[in-house]
Amino acid sequence: MKRNDFSWMTGGAQGSGIDTSANIFAKAAAQGGLQVFGNREYYSNIKGEHSYFRVRLSTDTIRSHVDTVDMLATFDDETVARHAGEVRKDGAIIYDPALGKNTIEQISTIEANVRKRLYAELDGMQLPHTVEGVLEVARRRGVHIYAIPYMDLLKKVGEKIGETSLSSLTRMTNVMAVAASFALLGYPEANVSEAIRKQFKAKPKVAEMNVTAISTAYEYVTEKYNGGFGYKLNPVETSEKRMFLRGSSTIGIAKILAGCRLQTYYPITPASDESEYLEAHENIDMENMEIDSPIASEAKTMQTSIAVVQTEDEIAAITMAVGGALTGVRSSTATSGPGFSLMAEGIGWAGINEVPVVVTLYQRGGPSTGLPTRHEQGDLRFALHIGHGDFPRIVLASGDLEEAFYDVAKTFNYAEKYQMPVIHIVDKAMANSDQTYKVFDPALAKIERGALITDGIQADEDAEFLRFKWTESGISPRPAIGTKGGIYWNTGDEHDEKGHISEDPTNRNSMMEKRMRKLDVVAREIPLEEKVHFYGPKDAQVTLVSWGSTKGPILDAMEVLKGEGISVNFLQIRLIQPFPTEYVKGILSNAKKIVDVEMNYTGQLGGVIREMTCVPVEQYILKYNGRPMSQEEIYGAVRQIAEGKAPNRVVLTNGA
Does residue 286 surpass a pLDDT of 90? Predict the structure, then answer.
């Protein structure tokens, strides 16, 4: 598969500055007009275990990562051992020659199966079980190997800046790996220095130390390796204003713009990143707020605040958010699988009391604690059915950061307009991905508050307010608690129109039908373009159907497949409750070959499709090893299916 882009990877022990180095690399490329997509993988411990970061660059739009690495920038032995085999022929590995004699046995954090695979490969080539042995395997495959003596270079940096503390100097090792990478690619040093100054803008002294380290690395690479290994990375001119965004902060920004003024949470990976971002921006002055890019003038005039509360557990998080919504405040909570499990009763309470609350569900690997820091799409069925008994809820799944940004406003609008819980499904892959986008327009995130009463209620003194008044639409007037004339009761039991507990069978039928008919209204009123997206020609050899963050690699793979004469279209289902049955049935009934693409074991969306449309899905592309799908994996699987060479279940397994 030919590509017109470049894939860079770095790795190291958690806590060693991997995120910082990758962000500097990505931002330096973005400042040069390049399109960027990055994703982070890390273990579920705080410090010590291996993490790695992939950054993909292109002059064209990119939406996903690829498995093939063009350049691996390392400064520890484990990254060489784990990832050298992923570097393509004619690619490059940067390493510290001081680590060459280190044995694989000495790397305590490598799992037994990885160690066994490495030993077998090295033994087969009669090479030592060392970093040098692993590099020799890569060299024999045609990979270029570049030794960067970090400590020698750092001592030179120390001489230039008058710093003798080795502990202070070694903190810049990761930055030197970034600089060496760009120097080998012939990328302008000025762009990298600018990215450094932005990364450390709050610490100008640290920034200038790192700028000196960059200059020293550039000097060494230019002299030692004549500037590169053949692949050149050049800035491109663009007039387009772009943002460089991370998934979790994108959703946080969107909540601020959507008018959310109460966010509750209990710490859980990967959802906590969003709430921590909001905590850092509780007092909002949009004119001075740093979002890595200019935003529309409408938002720049906003000055407001948001209350972010870390609760004692997820039960408290959902009930506090519900309480906030009862006061008329736009309220939300963010969580992941185990926390979502604890929210079941609270979401049910919101359902029976018709409370507009938004739950942002960041999916991760399950069940139980499962894979706390890894990716999966295993919570779809759970979101559709959370809580006992029947009550309405809306389930909306975003496919990328741009969709998520605009979907946040939609979720609050849906919640308030239809007076029910809304579950906004995203996932770990989106939360921990970084991407360049054309600047979003906050003016498109319009606020619609539905039947909220804000001016008091005019009624006869003897009349009681009917908060749950029976209506044809099922939607009743909603006052904030404390609204004059708006006295009513809330209870977890079934109730009458005033909110008083009632077990009368006639009332039960009336209230159950009132609540549930709102889903029919939702299905009629939400526009089709907010429910589904359809890509590609109508008459295609293969129809892919999916949801969530598989969107990016699917669209990227489709472009390559089109160039090879394989016709593919893609039905992305976004609104999953209420399900867009007739449209989906119409598309899939005419499809030549339906392929469900999902990040779970059972193909949960495929089951929902069959349940709702009676259209069977017999071909699946699935992945459940905790690593997100890549463009290359989907490309290979779809090509295999189009050629009639694939089993009914194609299980993808890439990822370290």
Answer: no
Query: Are 521 and 474 spatial neighbours (Cβ–Cβ below 8 Å)?
Result: yes
- Which tokens belong to 275? 């709430």
609 with 596: CB under 8 angstroms? yes
pLDDT in tens, 295-305: 434 444 556 78
Pairing type for strands 283-285 and 262-265 reads: unpaired
Residues whose CB is less than 8 angstroms from the CB of residue 297 and which lie 6 or more positions away in sequence, other chains included: none
Quote the CA–CA distance of 14 and 17 in Å, as a whole number: 7
The whole-angstrom separation of Cα 405 and Cα 247 is 9
Nearest one of 441, 641, 651 to 543, comparing CA atoms: 641
User: Structure pTM?
Assistant: 0.93
Q: For residue 341, which amino acid is it? A: S
Helix (H) or strand (E) holding 6: strand 5-13
Residue 159 is classified by DSSP as: H
**DSSP string over 315-329:** HHHHHHHHHHHHTT-
* Bond prior to 505 in cis (omega within 30° of 0): no
Tens digit of pLDDT for each residue in 193-213?
Answer: 999 998 898 899 999 999 999
What tens digit of pLDDT does each residue of 597-606 get? 999 999 999 9
Structural domains of the chain, ranges and CATH numbers in brackets: 5-225 (3.40.920.10), 244-444 (3.40.50.970), 528-652 (3.40.50.920)
